[in-house]
Design a protein that fits this description.
coenzyme a biosynthesis, Rossmann fold, single chain, 5 strands, 200 residues, P-loop_NTPase, 2 domains, dephospho-CoA kinase activity, transferase, five-stranded parallel β-sheet, globular, alpha/beta
Length: 200
């Protein structure tokens, strides 16, 4: 079974991933793969260079994520172009890792994909697990975590699909508004209900 773990910024998704990793469930992390596919020499790297030019690269040739982010932030066309370059590469790499892990005999895999719903990737997983917090908790935690102002944090949260909307797409929801122990208990219940063997 492939479980798609998703959430939003400061929603506690990493906490759930840490628990599942600690229980020896293999995790394929879309964000980590997104960094791998734009390393020098990779096809996506060359495509980004061709389209965006040298301004979005550091002097050592590595991708300058901050510069690229500011280029695409207010430009939907360029953002779509970047997505069209990187998303297929990320998808292919995730599928390769999935095949390798399945061959090793793993019964359950976790796809950690923040934009699972937004990018229409739900067809790649069997179950969708959502890390959820209320908007006020999300805002408070993001401000504390990044030291950002209320305005900055609000803007970042609003740039994503609201978590309460994502609930409609989830097969199960872990409510992370409470304590870590509470989140862990909920997660264990969900995995057990789905027939996933966990050694806690």
């Amino acid at each position: 079974m492939i479980i798609g773990l998703t959430g939003g910024i400061a929603s506690g998704k990493s906490l759930l991933a840490d628990y599942m990793g600690g229980w020896d469930l293999p995790i394929i992390d879309a964000d980590a793969i997104a960094r791998e596919v734009v390393e020098p020499g990779k096809p996506a790297y060359e495509e980004i260079k061709d389209f965006f030019g040298n301004d979005v690269f550091h002097e050592d040739g590595t991708l300058d994520r901050k510069a690229l982010g500011s280029v695409i932030f207010g430009d939907k066309e360029k953002r779509n172009r970047l997505n069209n370059i990187t998303h297929p590469a990320i998808h292919d790499e995730m599928m390769k890792k999935k095949e390798a892990l399945m061959k090793e005999g793993n019964q359950t895999l976790i796809f950690d994909i923040p934009l699972l719903v937004e990018n229409g990737r739900m067809n790649t997983v069997d179950r969708v697990l959502l890390a959820y917090v209320s908007e006020d908790v999300q805002l408070k935690r993001l401000m504390e975590r990044d030291g950002s102002s209320k305005e900055e944090a609000t803007e970042r949260i609003r740039s994503q699909m609201p978590l309460k909307e994502k609930k409609d797409y989830a097969d199960a929801v872990v409510d992370n508004n409470g304590s870590r122990g509470d989140s862990k208990t909920q997660l264990l219940h969900i995995l057990t209900a789905w027939g996933v063997k966990v050694d806690d």
